[in-house]
Amino acid sequence: MRKPMLAGNWKMNNTRDDAIHFVLNVDSKLPTSGVDCVICAPAIILRDLVKRAEVLKIGGQNMNENDYGAYTGEISAFMLKDTKVDYVIIGHSERRAYYNETDEKINAKIKKALETELKPIVCVGENLAEREDGLTNAILELQIVKAFRGVTIDNPDNIIVAYEPIWAIGTGKSASSQEAEDACKFIRSLLAKNYGAEIADRMRILYGGSMKPSNVKELVSQPDIDGGLVGGASLDEESFIALCKACAEKK
Ligand code: 13P
User: Fold this and answer.
1) Does residue 115 have an active-site annotation?
2) The total number of structural domains that make up the chain
């Protein structure tokens, strides 16, 4: 019912040449059905990638919530849309931690992205101390409620949630498939409270945090995990292809 998605988040990696080579090498080897394959790349090379990608879809990693103005260094939703990307990551934990992104800002960005017809990939997740204190669900609830406050969902295909436990990001230590499933299922129940079960059942929820070819099958075999948001392992061509294929085969 839900089409799986595998989105690579390249973060601040890859030059223009490296990125173009990646897309040219990978695009024809990706599954053409059963999964949406996405690369979220640095803004400066998005247009170059969009031009060369056929199967692959391209996204940004962040955007500003304002339309235009004196925001040095920032990129608006309209500017992203102008590069012809489809997706944009919003509220990644690295943005929350290093650039003071609040839930309120994230909420405004989601609204602006949807208004601009960009598909937001909204990131939520607890840190290690919160998990150890048994606060995972409380944190997820706060983040989801605040992120989605006043957000109207016309088409559930166009807004994606990524559960990314901070302690699993870049550490090599993924959440277990049960931990990831529990969190994704809980997120879906929160979305159902807001939007009703029918919409929540159609929304894709991804897992992110040290996902790689060796653990992707087990993770995406879980009923509420609709794919992955992948950092490190999305930088390697072979592993990105393997991740996309595993998601396409999700039962
Ligand atoms: P890693 O896959 O490198 O752990 O990163 C996950 C992530 O932050 C994706 O947005």
Assistant:
1) no
2) 1
